[in-house]
Automatic annotation (TrEMBL), chains A, B:
Pathway: Lipid metabolism; phospholipid metabolism. GO terms for cellular component: cytoplasm. This is Phosphate acyltransferase. It catalyses: a fatty acyl-[ACP] + phosphate = an acyl phosphate + holo-[ACP]. Belongs to the PlsX family. Its EC number is 2.3.1.274. It comes from the Bacteria. GO terms for biological process: fatty acid biosynthetic process; phospholipid biosynthetic process. Its main location: cytoplasm. Homodimer. Probably interacts with PlsY. Transmembrane segments: none annotated. It comes from Candidatus Mesenet longicola.
Length: 340, 340
């Protein structure tokens, strides 16, 4: 039986603190599994959090509440939050990792602030140049991991190489893949295409056969094929790919729904279709994959979507628990050290 | 009445030369409009093209056929095609622009070869540093132009600025927009985000109010909102955004179709839904927007999709005709010269 202790920022996100406390409760009731003993340190403003906490007995009895006088706002600049919000719930939750009180943190708050504070307070793992943001995405068949999603706008070959090692460790610990297939995003699959950094990263990756299962380049047109476990890109490109694809998916799905609801006859018959559709499109439901992982930091830091409801937040907690229980950071350190 | 003469590479694309000749016929029958006199020079291998050409009387009577002994293959490297395929239909069609025989070329052939040969044979317009690939994309409401789609993997601020000027001219001539709204793709809308090149391009663009209607940054999550006419990105990012979005659209649409066809009851009722869906999703039909424009070259060069059928190829021809008739290149030259 492993003991996992996680810090929760109760004040981050559009529906906090209710969605957060309900999310912890949802985690206990639906996602905890049988082999782990999980408890929480919950950081937030007493007057807002305690009245809710008192209603969720299982959460209450498995957590320690820590009152924080300040809150980081969604439009705070990262540099401002880092300097001026040291008494906030997010800052205090991250400090709890450094103190050794907890091993991970989950927050739905300001992404830039979370990265800036986590990087400053925790620092990076040994020999890691830059942290990266990674998340899990669906395909028609199996899920894959995409990184970086925006922590770094310009990446050199060494950083891209490290992202591959970190992404591979993430795929092992969170997706349970044995020998994750890693690919490098490029705009052509010929070796001559792409930027200098990408071509150099390719050369590094193809030599690292002892620690990585590198499959070469992948194009954006192939990212939903489901035959790769980890796709590596710089943060600018990863961010654009993720947002463009999500926006397109939402647009098409809303067009389909609008058409089904647009007249009496399609509405009537649409009932049968909708039922089937929601089961297959449900596979693309972001709730069950909520949570971006900040890889390469001294501690497990999970960013939940700002608009996460309790179900999504519960899944972000599960992400953190899986990463901690399966020693994500130890696997990253061992991967990186074996090539230094 | 304007006279427009266009060179057609009859040998490029998966279904050439049939789809090409039928495409010219489709153009004459459906897209030519009333104010333009269009004729063609058709380049291809006589034994393959002539038997088809003889069946399409309207094409035959409005075109000159030029026999070419060679063909550029879809997997030819651009450098090889440039050096070794000078007798090919594509090469000869591009040379016809330089000779003054025609003012534009349309090809469904090898994109890299088309760009390399066009750049070598035609050169760039005065003061243009690099050509860019642009195309028209749908949103729920109005279409927009995205560039660069892959001609340049790394772009400095000056090139991004020129892409904005060229894209704006393209939106005026092909989409008929009076004062096109131009935006720069970034991963955040705050002025501090993005790469150095993007931030410098932003500074250049916001000072060019006399020639551009610059609206600032746009994120990939907003690209389908329909309130921007031209989105500027470097070729790597533009290529990834385009391919990721297309792949996601195709995946969701095929999931919907699969579900509708998956059982007797949904199949029966799906008939009503499908009819409505195909009209609204038809807006996303790439056929009517087929054709990427190589902007910044001394001549109008249109790349049609490799898998274009005759309808799609006909629309690529219309692209070329609109660009020529509305003086696209003169507008680019005037835009660029006013800031030099």
């Amino acid at each position: 039986m492993n003991d996992v202790v996680i810090a929760i920022d109760a004040m981050g996100g559009d529906f906090a603190p209710l969605s957060v406390i309900k999310g912890v409760d949802f985690f206990f009731n639906n996602l905890i599994g049988s082999n782990t003993n999980v408890s929480f340190h919950i950081y937030g403003q007493e007057e807002k959090v305690l009245p809710i906490l008192l209603k969720y007995k299982r959460v209450l009895s498995n957590s320690t509440f820590v009152d924080c006088v300040d809150v980081i706002l969604s439009d705070d600049k990262p540099s401002f939050a880092l300097r001026q919000r040291k008494k906030s719930s997010m800052y205090s939750a991250i400090e709890a990792i450094k103190d050794g009180t907890v091993t991970g943190v989950v927050s739905s708050g300001n992404t830039g602030a979370l990265m800036a504070i986590a990087r400053f307070v925790l620092g990076t793992l040994p020999n890691i140049y830059r942290p990266a943001i990674a998340s899990v995405f669906p395909t028609k068949s199996k899920d894959f991991i995409l990184l970086d999603l925006g922590a770094n706008v310009d990446c050199n070959a060494d950083s891209l190489f490290q992202f591959a090692v970190m992404g591979s460790a993430f795929a092992k610990t969170v997706l349970g893949r044995d020998n994750p297939k890693v690919a490098l995003l490029n705009i052509g699959t010929e070796e001559i295409k792409g930027t200098d950094a990408i071509r150099k990263a390719f050369d590094l990756l193809k030599c690292a056969t002892d620690i990585l299962n590198f499959k070469g380049y992948i194009e954006a047109s192939e990212f939903l094929n489901g035959d790769i476990d980890v796709i590596v890109a710089d943060g600018f490109v990863g961010n654009v790919m993720l947002k463009a694809a999500e926006t397109m998916a939402n647009t098409i799905i809303s067009l389909v729904k609008d058409e089904i609801s647009s007249s009496f006859i399609t509405k009537l018959f649409g009932f049968f279709i909708k039922k089937k559709l929601s089961s297959s499109l449900g596979h693309f439901n972001p709730k069950t994959r909520n949570g971006a992982m900040f890889l390469g930091l001294n501690g497990v830091v999970i960013k939940s979507h700002g608009n996460a409801d309790h179900i999504a937040f519960g899944h972000a907690i599960k992400f953190a628990v899986d990463a901690i229980r399966n020693n994500l950071n130890a696997k990253i350190i061992s991967g990186i050290s074996s090539v230094e």
